[in-house]
Design goal:
The protein is an alpha/beta fold. It has 24 helices and 15 strands.
């Protein structure tokens, strides 16, 4: 038998291929990408800077065009799939076909619970006709400005207390400036000049006094950090002070800060020891540090509040932690909606590095891209590495194998903000505050139906009734307390009858809630807990990373079921059980909280109990149910 000749695919059909498969690199697109991100260094572009480069392209072009993604992949020596899967994961990147036109401006109107209560839906309904087709209008999740509700972002400018007129005025001003500065051809003019003054973001408008580097140093700032770095202050004494003060992680998890520092320091020591056996996948080496300033929990804005005013108190805490733990480099992960804070940090970091009070670790400021799940520590680590922000399976924990495979100290902004004061003033200063048997201070982000929303520094263990009356000027005029969310979207919903429960770690679990990041959203008799729960579930469904089925499918299905006037209690309970037990990370595990709280405390709203006679009943929400024996029928409202 004669040997057979193997022909390439298509040759037998007379269709030889004369071009390479797949999307080909365009020279012009490569030149544009290089002009924006710079020429590659001798060892190539860093893989972990992929998201930063995507931001650069997105800012300059108004979107991510396919030709530029191809060019970026080639320039970074990555597959197009790697680049596309990262770009398509984050909300703030818009991928367009090459023949499409990028929007001249993107306006994001916050549809979070606080802004929805303040009229965001009306803004979203009225703005499209006024802004025109060239402006992209986005219904955005919470943008971290709940005390300014309703809030919006016009490009990279925050519009506090947004009205239709205010948003339209800001858009017109930016479009006029863009038209005047844009060249005849080429990318959009860059509007992110780090030398521009940071605009005020308080509402009502008021000047924010920023303690800049020189003023902070003149008042004794960085003296403690320098003493720790120079060996003049005992590192172990710093950890002991944190332990005695009872400082816990203030991003939501509440893990003891001093204990975390010890664990990471020990892991770094083991990893660096020659001949020491290492766990599978552990790369070893000096520890790294990652700081979470993503602050994506709806209702939370405390980190922004402190960062806008006293950035160096936080940065001194960073330097102290870096020295005590022994970290080689620090990565600050800032949420993308905080454009003014990014400019501020860039400016103040430059001042710190130009005149350092002591030897500094390597510090990088990184920019999030609109993914709530990146508030989870391992998802943030993935994002810092330039990947999709999908939580990791544990163990190993990031204290063992974290950023770039090295032991990593991960902290929330506010945790580090208090380090200097606790060490200098003594741990008893911090622990001496507290009510109802609790110790310490808590920064509550309060929004909703109160007279004076904002960040309220109050004793740990304060009740929501005390918080509203003593720190918020009481309820808003004409409103009475009906319910509240003690810990943002994930923390559950409690009725006014539980307004005297202490607010702190470990005090709310018995009621099906937790304090989380201490984001308190106050509802009145004109609001409904079921509407708040639906808003939260839609948010969680939109923000699910999609990695695990219980969360991806469960949140979306739950949101659809929660739209019904009368809930399907059995199905929702089944979904809640599966999401809570089988989800990979805290997003899916906490998703059942609003469902269970409505079932437990607000059954009348979903057709499971008679409607109380002292509450106004909105038509179509919570139909009549048969009253129990001896009760009179509860009538529906109009």
């Amino acid at each position: 038998m004669e040997p057979q000749t193997v022909q390439p695919p298509g040759a037998a059909r007379g269709k030889p291929r004369h071009t390479l498969k797949g999307r080909q690199l365009e020279a012009a697109a490569l030149r544009e990408v290089r002009a924006l991100i710079g020429e590659a260094p001798p060892d190539g572009h860093r893989r972990d800077l992929l998201i930063e480069h995507l931001h650069t392209l997105n800012d300059a072009m108004g979107a991510l065009f396919e030709r530029h993604l191809v060019a970026l992949a080639a320039e970074m020596r990555l597959s197009l799939v790697e680049v596309f899967e990262v770009a398509s994961f984050y909300h703030h990147f818009e991928i367009l076909k090459d023949n499409a036109t990028a929007p001249t401006l993107t306006v994001r109107v916050c549809a979070g619970l606080g802004c929805e209560m303040a009229g965001a839906r009306d803004l979203l309904a009225r703005l499209p006709a006024l802004l025109g087709a060239s402006v992209r209008l986005v219904e955005a999740p919470c943008i971290g400005r709940c005390e300014q509700a309703p809030a919006a972002l016009a490009g990279q400018v925050a519009v506090a207390g947004a009205t239709v007129a205010a948003v339209e005025r800001e858009v017109r001003a930016q479009l006029a400036a863009e038209a005047a500065s844009r060249p005849a051809t080429g990318p959009k003019a860059e509007k992110n000049d780090s030398n521009k003054p940071v605009p005020s973001v308080e509402w009502p408008p008021a000047a924010i006094e920023i303690i800049a580097y020189e003023a902070y140093r003149a008042a004794g700032g960085y003296s403690l950090a320098a003493a720790v770095v120079n060996g003049e202050h005992d590192a172990e004494a710093v950890i002991a002070a944190l332990d005695h003060a009872g400082l816990r992680g203030l991003g939501g998890a509440g893990f003891p800060a001093g204990r975390k520092w010890r664990i990471v320091r020990e892991e770094a020591s083991k990893a660096a020891a020659p001949g020491e056996p290492r766990a599978a996948g552990e790369h070893g080496g000096t520890a790294l540090m990652a700081v979470n300033i993503d602050e994506g929990e709806p209702g939370t804005f405390k980190d922004r509040f402190y960062l806008e005013r006293d950035p160096h108190r936080f940065l001194e805490g960073v330097l102290i932690a870096a020295q005590v733990v022994g970290t080689e480099a620090v990565y600050l992960y800032l949420r993308d909606e905080y454009h003014d804070c990014r400019r501020l940090l860039q400016r103040e970091l430059a001042a710190l590095m130009a005149d350092p009070p002591c030897p500094l670790p390597h510090i990088e400021l990184r920019r999030g891209a609109g993914a709530y799940v990146c508030g989870e520590e391992s998802a943030m680590i993935e994002s810092l590495e330039g990947k999709r922000g999908e939580p990791r399976m544990r163990p190993p924990y990031i204290a063992q194998v974290g950023l770039f495979g090295r032991p990593t100290l991960e902290h929330n902004f506010e945790t580090l903000f208090w380090v200097r004061d606790i060490v200098e003033k003594g741990p008893d200063w911090f622990a001496g505050h507290g009510r109802h048997g609790r110790k310490g201070l808590r920064s509550f982000s309060v929004s909703g139906r109160v007279k004076q929303p904002g960040v309220k520094l109050a004793p740990a263990g304060i009740t929501v009734r005390e918080l509203i009356d003593e720190y918020c000027g009481g309820m808003a005029e004409g409103h009475t307390l009906y319910a509240y969310l003690p810990g943002g979207a994930s923390g559950g919903i409690l009725p006014a009858s539980l307004a005297d429960v202490p607010l702190d770690f470990d005090t709310l679990q018995a009621h099906g809630c937790f304090i989380g990041s201490a984001a308190v959203i106050v509802l009145s008799q004109f609001d409904r807990a079921r509407d708040a729960a639906l808003n939260v579930m839609r948010f969680l469904a939109d923000e699910s990373c999609g990695q695990c089925t219980p969360c991806r499918v469960g949140t979306a299905k739950a949101a659809r079921l929660m739209e019904a006037d009368v809930w399907d209690a059995d199905t929702l309970d089944d979904l809640a059980l599966v999401m809570g037990d089988a989800s990979i990370c805290g997003l899916g595990q906490a998703a059942p909280n609003p469902i269970r709280c409505v079932h437990k405390y607000f059954r009348h709203e979903v057709g499971e109990a008679p409607w109380p006679g002292d509450l106004p009943n909105p038509g179509g929400k919570g139909r009549r149910v048969e009253p129990a024996i001896g009760e009179t029928r509860a009538e529906e409202g109009p």
